[in-house]
Structure formats: C-alpha cells, structure tokens
C-alpha cells in the first residue's frame, strides 16, 4: 500500500510539470516533434499543398507550363485517356472535355521520345510548311516515288498511304497512289469500286498497259489512284516467266511520273514479285510501325529485302522515313515503343506520331481519306502535320 501511494505521488508530480498523459492513440501537441529516448519522433504533418489554381509562393516561373511543352509526359485522366488543357502548378491539369466518341478540334503535342500526338489547336501549336522547310533546309527534289512497305500486316500501311497522300494533295501537290496490294484496300479507301474496273494495275504489271489508262480521280483535288483488283493476286505466278518481271512498274511509271509530285506505292505485306516491283520503281521507302509489342516484327526481313533490291535492281533505293502509327496514349507500351524506335533509327523517324482513333478506322468504309471524312479529327490533324514534315516544304513544280 505504501508503494502504491508513492507511485501515485510520482505520477501527480509528472502531470504537474508536463500536463496530463495523452489518451490512447494521440500525441501531445507540445511534444509532436520532440526526440524520444529510443530515437523515434512523432509523425509530422505533411507540408501544405497549393491549390490547383494557385502558384506556390516563391515557385519559379517554369513550375507553371503549357501542357505538351517539350519533355512533358502525356497527362491522363482516371479512365486512362489523355487530359487536354493547361498543366497548372502542383501538377494538376484543367481538362477540356469533349463529346463522347469524338476526337475533333485537336492539334499536335509532344509525347515520349520527341514524338507528337494531338491536342487542341491554337496559333502556338500550328505548323506551317515554311516552318518545316526552315527546320529541314535540304528538302528532297520532286518528283518523289515512295514505296510504303512493311512485311507485317495490319500496321497502318494502307491507311498511311491514303491519308498522307490526301494531305499532301491538300497542300497543293499532285499525288498518285499506286495500289499494288491484291486486296485493293487503298482503292476502296479512296472510293473506287474495284469490281467495276475496266483497267487496273493487273493490266499494267502483267499486260504492260500504259499506267495513264488505269488512273482514276478521287474526291480529293490533286489526288489520283491507280487501283488494284482481285486478279492482281495471280500476277505473282504469271510474272514468273515474264521478261524484266521485276521492272514492269518502273517502266510504266517512267512515262507518267512528270505529271505528279509524289507517287505512293502501297506494297502488299508479302515480300513477293509485286513488292519487288514496288521497291524497284521507288526512290525511297516509308515504313509505318505500329506502337505495339510486335512493332519491329518483320522489319529486319524488310530491310534485308531492301538491301537485295539495292544490290541487284535499284542502287539508289533507301529507307528514308519511318512513321509511328496507332499510338495509344493510355498505355505505357506505346511510349516505350516510341523511345526504342527512335533510339534505333534516329532522325529517320518522323516527329509526328499518328494516334489510334475511331475516326481513322471508320473513314475507309465510307471511301474517303480522313481529311474528307472528318477534317477536325485527331487523325486528320496528325496526317496534316506528317504531310508537312514529309514534304520538307518543297515547292510544287510548275506545269
């Protein structure tokens, strides 16, 4: 009993000096940051966070930046989609919501590896052909014959041939799309009914008919197409015993080339005689690469094939351009593919990246390129910027 009384007296003296003992689960306010015998401190409160619409006091001017500024990663919302708008101090973004399912009213903004995707257009983000020409003083001489090739199917090869050609035509260049794919997707994507053709690329390649006899106008001014047909699938076999079988397209193009600034040859995904004809007739190769896991699948074989054509048929042929397509801002994988492709191929890779959009997928079913189907969509804006980059600001030829 005497010992208990002594303990109570000691506790009373301690409370008189330091205040009453804290309740279970609380810390004394005065001792929140005081050291303890075992070296531990009480958890301190986190520093205050500035509201999204305010700039922290003393923060440098660079802490408030425009979304899409060089080096800034794409901002994503809760559903993984890119958040469009202005990046505020503290890392928040003021979103600019659009109608569900639409991707209109957008321009380009940088993503990983110096690439570009789409964001709302304003005067600061629009690029002119003159700007591109200033950045690339050595524009390639016209006319240019570009084979669009990739051994892997479904990588946006035909979509790129159609829409890049249409956007160059919209800039005032005369453009011809040569459809060498027996599926005829480039032809139908430009509004041509391949079942009603009198003359097609089959006749040009197999029967040596003049190319001018099969060229069709499209709904886009300055854009023309030499359509394919289903019979072109048999041309691979029919050309086997033919004389100069690898040079049929080159011979046909020689007579028609002066009428066009750009000729895009949509090669089939297989590396057969039709693809060899396309590569032998071209001066350069454009390779679309999708921003997905198997992006580089088949590219090594294509480059080897290009090397063989260089040695035996076309010594001036070169892989001049690589276009990253089907970019999905919701996935880290797309950013990783962009970085790796740029690391491997350097300045051959275009700055502009083409996003994966619903409108780009819908346009071919209406027989229209994206600039005719939905001129304000992200896909249309991306291909317009790509056209300026590919053209290098080269002046149109006088006719």
Verbal overview:
The protein has 399 residues and is an alpha/beta fold. Helices cover 31% and strands 13% of the residues. It contains 13 helices and eleven strands. A seven-stranded mixed sheet has the order 7-8-6-9-5-10-11, with helices on both faces.
Features:
seven-stranded mixed beta sheet; single chain; alpha/beta; 399 residues; two-stranded antiparallel ribbon
Give the helix/strand layout.
Layout: H1 2-18, E1 85-87, E2 93-95, E3 106-110, E4 116-120, H2 129-135, E5 144-148, H3 157-170, E6 175-179, H4 185-189, H5 201-206, E7 216-217, E8 223-226, H6 235-238, H7 248-256, E9 262-266, H8 273-281, E10 284-290, H9 299-312, E11 318-325, H10 332-345, H11 358-362, H12 370-373, H13 378-391
Helix pairs in contact: 3-13, 7-8
Number of DSSP-assigned strands: 11
Rg for CA atoms: 31 Å
Distance between the termini: 117 Å
Mean pLDDT: 76
Query: Strand order of the main beta sheet, please?
Result: 7-8-6-9-5-10-11
Low-confidence blocks of residues: 20-102, 104-109, 120-137
Number of DSSP helical runs: 13
The percentage helix is 25-40%
Major sheet description: 7 strands, mixed
Molecular shape: globular
Summarize the structure.
The protein is α/β, with parallel strands linked by helices and 399 residues long.
